[in-house]
Design a protein that fits this description.
10 helices; two-stranded antiparallel ribbon; elongated
Length: 234
């Protein structure tokens, strides 16, 4: 890895730096750089930066996961619990977002359209009816194509578009316990997520501080083992 290029990409110019850039510059110089060379491990300064950036990436991933968990269980979970509370457990008992009091909830509107987590348990009655019609048409498509060669070779239905204001949503009866457990609110708070980030930040700094010592010990151990093996061969 070209250390000069990596440095240029990660450290902003010191002139006219914003507060965040100054903080990043301080963090980079004090926690991500290391001038030591670990010959036995074949690690130099540039290689170690890559290792440390991976550790930082893991830290960021854990923090995002903590907030995502709270979002799923408290924001999306509130909608799931509303459906369960209203006993929307079949296509016939499904309700629209306005009927459920969620007409102006942006995250829920987006969730019922394309949200992966929410759509795992929440069904749209109109979408299922549309898919059933498309399945029937696909089953007879080859026959229709023989009588009309101008039709495309493969059946390609138009994708269904969910209308949150008019379409009806429900949780299938056989999935209500799964939905209740998956989106259970207990034990998840925004304060808990913030505390997790603080603890993870402290752990990150500790790991970055002791990493050179650990690598130095491992480097010396590998060197000693290599020397011992060489002496035995001789």
């Amino acid at each position: 890895m070209n250390f000069g290029i990596l440095t240029a990409l990660t450290i902003p110019e010191e002139d006219n730096m914003s507060l965040w850039e100054e903080l990043w510059n301080y963090f980079y110089k004090n926690y991500l750089t290391d001038d030591n060379v670990y010959d036995n491990l074949k690690l130099g300064g540039g290689s170690l930066i890559s290792v440390r950036l991976i550790i930082v990436g893991i830290f960021i991933g854990v923090c995002l996961a903590a907030f995502a968990s709270v979002f799923n269980k408290r924001i999306l979970g509130a909608f799931v619990r509303k459906l369960l509370g209203e006993e929307c457990l079949s296509p016939e008992s499904g309700k629209t977002l306005p009927e459920l009091g969620y007409a102006d909830k942006l995250f829920i509107r987006n969730g019922v359209r394309r949200g992966v987590n929410l759509r795992r348990v929440v069904r749209c009655r109109e979408e299922e009816e549309y898919l059933a019609r498309m399945a029937e048409q696909e089953a007879t498509y080859e026959e229709r194509r023989r009588s009309n060669p101008a039709l495309p070779k493969k059946f390609r239905p138009e994708p269904f578009r969910v209308n949150p204001d008019e379409h009806h949503f429900y949780i299938p009866e056989d999935m209500k316990y799964v939905a209740d457990m998956k989106f259970e609110q207990k034990g998840t708070t925004w304060g808990g997520a913030v505390l997790c980030v603080i603890l993870m930040a402290a752990a990150l700094v500790a790991v970055l501080l002791v990493l050179p010592k650990i690598l130095e010990l491992v480097n010396d151990l590998v060197g000693a083992l290599s020397s011992s093996g060489t002496d035995q061969i001789v």
